[in-house]
Request: fold
Amino acid sequence: MSPKAAPSAGKELMLTAGMYLLRSRKGGLMGGRGLGSVYPRCGCRQGPAGKQQGASCPQLGQDGHGSWFVSLDLPWVPGGGRRRVRRGGYPTRQAAGQALDRLRAPGGRVLTVADWLVTWLETRVRVRDSTRRAYAAHIRLHLAPRLGTILLAELHAGHLEKAFMALLGRQGMSPAMARRVHATLRSALNAAVRERLLADNPARYLKLPRGTRPRAVVRTRRRVRQWLRTGVRRAVAVWTPAQAATFLAAAENQRRMRATGLVCPGAGAGLIRGDLRDVRGSDVACRSGGAVVTVRGARPRAVPVLARYHAPLLAAARFAGDALIAGGTDPGRRNITNPLTAALDGGGGLPRLDTSRLRATWLRGCADLLGLATFMHAAGISCSQRLGDLVAGLDPASEVQAVRLLGGAR
Reply:
């Protein structure tokens, strides 16, 4: 097929991770112009101009004269023309043929790192949608641009060291994000080892900085003033209940119910962004002696609402009915809360609302109700991971007990 020709019937052109691949509907990866070739070359020259003889040298192929080269075509890229890999300096034809075999994947396929990352992502079955989106973003934004054109068979730790140094240096990626991208790459290359496309996983030798774990702080008036003055915020900061109420009071009348449906499930029931987009008015109910939010999705559960948020959240639920409580019609729209947070921007002298930190407000409120700080101080526990390991085998209480413990009026 010519590089400028359109794909024939029965083939579909897929754009994934910023790299084009031509695939058949049966799932087979199409190669380039062939399975590669080996050929001899020497440096002999002829004539006054000293022109290289190239393939016309009569001594080519004789023992000890010249060396052998390999040529291998990469998969076709629309608009990119022909892509070819050449390697040389092999003493014999047999050595060049062995080198060519190492560059090719089983079945004669030619795989770059981008080719394999796309194939790996498409063949992952038991993975959550949010995890798949994160993998795709890591590949599209970071891995494919810096490693995509390298042949999978030639990938080594030096390539990875150079790529991640650039991400951490010039691109300014945080150590935590770099470790997540590295985990995606390592998982993909582990699959390549299992498929016998690689003899070893070079990602296992890469050492990345761990960074420092952010420490949660409460947004006091002093910290809010400092944030507004400098624009620098703490990575984990907790809104107080009074500040959450200030955001609700700042909303205009026509958006107050939607703003309530955004703030109250987060600060009152600990829902994260993904859960906030999916909550409908019918998911909020008054039962078991308090208000309860039913969370669907990967981790379905019923969450008691803190008492101070009962009345506004129930009012917002009645206003929404069966519709999404925060507004909109499609929970898959990841920017659905942007108009609400923009409307609340700067309300009451506070910085813009960060919905990802509303859950921390709920966690702090629950810890206060349970006396968790007193317990951990008495037990000498400073890390919640140890406490989580201890309670992992305990059965949770019933909904009535949970409401009485966390959502009942005090």
